Structure formats: structure tokens, C-alpha cells
Amino acid sequence: MRPVVTARSTHRGTTHPFGPLTVVVDAAAGAGGVGRRLDHVRRAVAATGLAHEIVVASDGDEVPGIARATFEAGNRFIAVAGDDRSVQDVIDGAFDDGTTIVERPVIAVIPAGGVCDLTRSFGLPDDVDGAVSHLRDEATYALDVMKVSTTVDDGRAVRYGHNMVQVGFRAAVAGATSAIAPGDGRVRRFTAFWRTYARWRSRSVTLHVDARSHRFAAWDVVVANGQFVDGGQRLSPRSYPGDGVIDALAFVGPKADAYRMLPRIFMNGGHLPDPGVKELRAKIRVTVEPERPWPVVVDGRRFGSTPVTVQVVPQQVLLKL
After folding, report:
1. Which of 9, 10, 249, 251 could form a disulfide with 222 if both were Cys (CB 3.0 to 4.6 A apart)?
2. Which residue from 68, 53, 52 is spatially nearest to 2, judged by alpha carbons?
3. For residue range 145-157, what is the model confidence (pLDDT) as tens digits?
């Protein structure tokens, strides 16, 4: 059954070497900013001369179903206009029972008013016209993704992410931000940061990294495929999302590092190496088990709580460059 969407339109033109192009517009992304740029997206894609279909989702919850239906129809080329959550939804919709529905799906990103940290790792354009101009050629990057398994109310759940899994303090800040009434995003995050900081404590955390286990007293853990998070923080500067490896960073220093490191993180990721951060790398999986449950955020989306297992899925998806 095809998902219900706000609008669907088909446009004639030259067929791309990757086959029919589907543009999925997550209108709710970027606090509705993507929807406000819908006409701009339509004009820019039409100017490429490519045959394409535009599918507009009014609710981000529709995006995985749209992606799944597209891939089940045998099409492999999707451009998603949205943010990191939108990209995650398309990638999650590309998988069925552990493998991609079509062989090596191609995913392009159009950050049309939504913040997308994945594209920062590649230096890709963050404007509509620049991003759409990259649709014409065949340049791609074989992208690793992450199979993330967390604890939810009714047991365990699985999603496929592409950029970063936050466990602990930063995940709690994200949750507190979403609970504050809508307004200036920077003010909301500032308020949430300090509210969370006041109550947060380090805990004993066990990290199972491939065949080895490590125990630390930590206040935050990050499992990274990409480098950037939260709108430009270069939190994991040694991560390369196509090397078949994920990076686990355990923040074991004083809790004050949560704000003392920020200038170096924002400038160039110069906070590493640091004695307050334990750096570990996995070729298979990482499991994070704090002594008490911590929240988990995957690519900006709250997704259950610990224990969380992040498994490397190497190079089954192609990112359009």
C-alpha cells in the first residue's frame, strides 16, 4: 500500500543514468522551513532537465514509507529535501530485514532550510541551487550506515542511521530542548543545556567494542560515523563515513568539559586528543551499557534508551556527491 502524502507530481525530461529520480520533500523539517522553500526546490529540480517525481510529505513520519514504496517499485535514486532526520528516514526506508531493498540505493541531500550535518562531512552545498546542481552527474560516495538497536517500551527496536548516535548528556540536552516551547532555537538549546547540566552526573559505563570490553566513569558517549552534529559541532573529527569503521568517544573528564570543550569543537574539532576523552574504534559493533538507563539520540531523533548497540553496515548505500 502506497503511503498517503500531501502532493505528488511527475515531470518529463532526461532519465538519469541511475534511473528515475524521486524527490522527497519533508515539508515539516527545519521547523517548517523546508516546506516554505518547496517552490524553490521545484524550480531548481525542473531546471536540471531530469525526469523526476516530486513527493511532498507534510509529516516526517510519512518519509520512511515513501522511501520504502519508491525502492519497492524498483527505483534506486532518491533526493531528499530536509534535514538529518529526513535523511535517516530515507535510509531507514531503504532497508528490509537487514539488507537494502534495491542494490546500492543512491541518496542525494537537498538541505532546503533544514540543518544537515551529514553534508558538512563532505563539504557539500547547504543551499537549494548548489545541492540540486549535484544531481546531474554520476559522482557518488559509498556510505557506511549504522544499524542501531535500542530499548523501547515494548522491547527492542531497530533503525538505520547515517551520522551520529548520542548517548547520555547530549542526548538528554536534545530531549530537553524539544520539551521547551517553540521559539529561538539557540535560546531553547542554551536553556536546555544548563537545565540538563545542573542535574547530570557521571556514571559507570561499559563499552563493548568488537571483541573487547571497556569500563569508564563517563558523562557522555558518542558513536560516530560522520564528523558533525547539532548544526556544526565537529564532535568526531577523525570519523570518515566510508571507511568501514565507527568511532566511540567516551567523555570521562570533568563534567565542566561539556562547555569548556565547545570552542575547540566548534572551531575545527581540535578537542582531540584529550585525556578527558577515550577514543575507541569498531569494525563490527559497539554496545553502550551504563549502570542506569541513558537516553539515545540518532541523527537528531530520540530513539529509546540504553543499552544500545550500533553495528557497522559498510557501503551498501551510495551518497550522491
Report:
1. 249
2. 68
3. 999 999 998 789 9
